[in-house]
Design a protein that fits this description.
The structure is a single chain. By secondary structure, this protein is mostly helical. It has three domains: about 5-65, no CATH class; about 70-135, Arc Repressor Mutant, subunit A (Orthogonal Bundle); about 145-250, no CATH class. About 45% of the residues lie in helices and about 10% in strands. It contains ten helices and nine strands. It has helices at about 10-15, 50-60, 65-70, 80-90, 95-100, 105-135, 165-175, 190-200, 215-225, 225-235; strands at about 15-20, 25, 30-35, 40, 45, 145, 145-150, 240, 250. The strands form four sheets. A three-stranded antiparallel sheet has the order 1-2-3. It has a two-stranded antiparallel sheet with strand order 4-5. The protein has a two-stranded antiparallel sheet with strand order 6-7. The protein is globular and about 55 Å long.
Length: about 250
Amino acid sequence: MEKQLWEHEIIEIAQGYVREGTAYVCLLCGAAFEAGRVYEMEGGLLYDAQGAAKRHVTQAHGTVADWLLEQKPALTGLTELQQQLLKHISAGRADAEIAKHAGIAPSTMRSHRFKLREKEKQATLYLALMHSLAEKTEKRIGATAQGMLDPVHPAATMVDDRYGITAAEREKTVKTYFDETGALRQIPVKEKKKIIVLREIMKNFRAEKAYSEKEINRVLGRIHPDYATLRRALIEYGFMDRTPDGSVYRAAGN
């Protein structure tokens, strides 16, 4: 099973790529560069695999900070205001300018800087706590009596106990709601089961591909007649993003 973004070392996440077997892989989109090959990047410059991966991250995503600040706040645990303030800080704006943009007093901006610094300290100590706890109990915090909790998809709109799903629950729900051809027998009413079903449906879409609404409807229509309800749910639960005019759909986070 592939690692989730947050399961990598902090230094790996910060650089945006990692060595996996014989390739260097972008952690943000999955683009892979095979070791031993030479790659021509934008501008006609040639790079080895590691250099190409590093260059790709910059060209395709900016910095990792840029990319993370464009994701839904739930992924990083920031509030929407904190995320906006960090975007201004990332852009190099002074406190007075940020305060004006955010509609807050300069003294309030200083208070937010203090809180963000404290959040950084707390996050570091929390990671140390979880690592030590896992070593002490020989069990990760996600391990329950029913098995390990499944990871939450990065673009989930609101993470709560609906996402407390184990592999056993997922397998049982998939068997109950999908027939042997992959068609959906019915759309679940219960939130947890709906999330499991939507996650399973996303296996029919390629992460890097842009889809039109017509293409989305065609794929979903093969799964269940009420493709419009499924399409709205994929957006609502953060599995898919779409452009404001609804012309392009993508797997969320890509």
